[in-house]
Amino acid sequence: MNSTRLTMLGAALACAMMSAGCDDTHVVKTPVFQTGLAAFTNQASPFEKAFPRQYASYRQNDESTVMTEYNGSRNYQKHNDFNDKGWKHAQPYLKNLWLGYAFAYEYNAARGHTHAVEDILEIDRINRFNPQGKGNQPASCWNCKTPNMVQWVQKDGDKFWSRDFNELRENFNVTEESISCSTCHDTTNMEMKLYSIPLQDYLKRTGQDFDKMSRNEKRALMCGQCHVEYYFAKAPGTVPNKVTFPWDNGFDVEQVYEYYKDKGADNGPFVDFVHAVSGVKVLKAQHPEYETWKTGPHGTAGVTCADCHMPYQREDGKKFSSHWWTSPLKDAELRACRKCHADKTPEYLRGRVLDTQKKTFAQLLKAQEASVRAHEAVRLANEFTGEKNMDYDKLMAEAREMTRKGQFFWDMVSAENGIGFHNPTRGLETLMRSMEYSQKAVELCLAATNGAIIEGVAGDIYKLVPPIREFSREMQMDPEALKSHKWLSYMKPVPKTEKVWDLNKRIK
Ligand code: HEC
Ligand code: HEC
Ligand code: HEC
Ligand code: HEC
Questions:
Q1: I want to staple 310 with a disulfide (CB 3.0 to 4.6 A). Which of 31, 291, 306, 399 is the partner?
Q2: Do 363 and 432 form a contact (C-beta atoms < 8 A)?
Q3: What is the CA(182)–ligand 1 centre distance, in A?
């Protein structure tokens, strides 16, 4: 037997054993156990005794130091490449693009699942300074952090979603009830089970039955509970603030964008926030890993998230799924990949990933700069007092629409955590289109002002509009600090108040 056939046989064997990327996947079943634990056992440690290997790997999610070239497990500030709170591949304009929205205060890279609750409690997007103790965000934000969600919704019904986030702050154990076993399993027998209400709603709306799905589809949907684009419902006839998946037209970026056109409170376009400087009504995208993967080379071949992020491991002759959800590149041997790509070296595979990421990241930065230029053009055209084009209003309406669309397309790649790898073609195509829309916005503003704003929009964007490096709730309490950047001066100062919350303890 020559070496090619050997590796092919190896790959086929690996495939059969791993039961992924092959046609016979649905035949293999998830093992069923009798755990003796109650349904909805939301803490993690009660599972240690029965499942020591899964539990030990789950605890590895605590690790929060190891980095890869573009990713890794430090929760660094994603706009920052200038000090040790950041990382070399940062996106300098994030605070500019989200000005007027809580994301501009703080936005960090993802780390392990066991930190999810701690990280949401400490993020500056939730107000910890409100004298009444309110978070000024809906309870919907809890949806992807703790399995306690399920009981909270059972208790409050549809009212849950519009409760204030901070009303639930004290209701649980921070380290034990972050994303945990009952997020994905029926805790009585460890079968895969959906806990996510928005995903169940979507399946119901589209006539799909989770119980009848193949094992492989179920494995991917475990992650599709949270690693998706979503929004908080506003349209008439919906449950206010309920987390909803925008997939009714399909998973492509254009289809998702179309979906949003009548989901606003007035049945007009859905709006996450109004940009503080340009007044453009922006849509904020969130981590669409599931959608991106599903339409990419591995997703269409039936290779699921778990194949790469939960590879099988062996210990004392026992085979189990790793529950350390992290970058596969942290393993020098890239064992997860080589279960299937047995004929390739780790160096080759790593090279393929990095090549995609490098090219995607370069275009991501350009699309981001084009978006900033579009907002600046709209700002200048809004404030323009000279002789306007007779179609000024029409041209400006179109310019705002193009700015919104350009930013959403950029964000659907920016917020996606694979930096292109989950779907290289989609990543680059989406960024290309983002740049087209943003550029069109600038052209429309030029037309609306008969070219008068040209000096403000032509040339080096880093000089025209420098990145906003620092911004936080506390900075907004200081009128002097808001004078430090032309765009920050558009933010209204807020009254000075003291910090009310420390983790989940009320200190004031
Ligand atoms: C984010 C989702 C998720 C969470 C959280 C999770 N699991 Fe799993 N678990 C899975 C998936 C996916 C599989 C693979 C199922 C399959 O392939 O049929 C799995 C498989 C298992 C299995 C079957 C044997 C094996 O290793 O494949 C056990 C036992 C298990 N998990 C225990 C746990 C325990 C204990 C916890 C909490 C400490 C936990 N899981 C948390 C998704 C999760
Ligand atoms: C309940 C919601 C939820 C589910 C289900 C879920 N995740 Fe996550 N995931 C998160 C959140 C939230 C974070 C970021 C946590 C933080 O930064 O504190 C995260 C972070 C991650 C990370 C980054 C870890 C690192 O080291 O940087 C990976 C990888 C990941 N998830 C993969 C998966 C996979 C694979 C699945 C399915 C088996 C899955 N997740 C299911 C919510 C979820
Ligand atoms: C073919 C393998 C493969 C599949 C399938 C896959 N991923 Fe990934 N994923 C990767 C690689 C490679 C990276 C890049 C890691 C890096 O840059 O360090 C990554 C990155 C990530 C990250 C960011 C990790 C970090 O360090 O912050 C998350 C989150 C993630 N994937 C979630 C998912 C989810 C959810 C799915 C399924 C919907 C999925 N992945 C499917 C290989 C895969
Ligand atoms: C369960 C099997 C399986 C696993 C695990 C797996 N792959 Fe793949 N990979 C495939 C299949 C199947 C294809 C598609 C082949 C085709 O259609 O030509 C593919 C295609 C690819 C391609 C070419 C398409 C592209 O994206 O450019 C690359 C590169 C690749 N894989 C890298 C990786 C890396 C890196 C990992 C680990 C992070 C990995 N694969 C994990 C099965 C797998």
A1: 306
A2: yes
A3: 9
Ligand nearest to the CA of 28: 1
Tokens of 5: 């056939």
CB 55 less than 6 A from any atom of ligand 1: yes
Mutate to test the pocket of ligand 1, among 27, 61, 323 (most ligand atoms within 8 A of CB): 323
Q: Which of 151, 166, 143 is nearest to 287 (CA)?
A: 143
- Give the mutation target among 120, 219, 226, 322 for probing the ligand 2 site: most ligand atoms within 8 A of CB: 226
The mean-pLDDT minimum among 9-13, 71-75, 301-305, 432-436 falls in 9-13
Rg (CA), the chain: 24
pLDDT of 12-68, one tens digit each? 334 434 444 444 444 567 788 999 999 999 999 999 999 999 999 999 999 999 999
Cα of 112 from ligand 2 centre, angstroms: 6
Rounded to whole angstroms, what are the CA distances from 433 to 254, 361, 427?
10, 15, 10
CA 367 vs CA 228, 295, 361, 434, 458: distances in Å: 22, 22, 10, 6, 16
Ligand 3 touching residue 71 (CB < 6 A): yes
Quickly count: other Cβ atoms within 10 Å of residue 109's Cβ: 18
Task: Select from 482, 399, 87, 26 the least CA-distant residue to 218.
Answer: 26
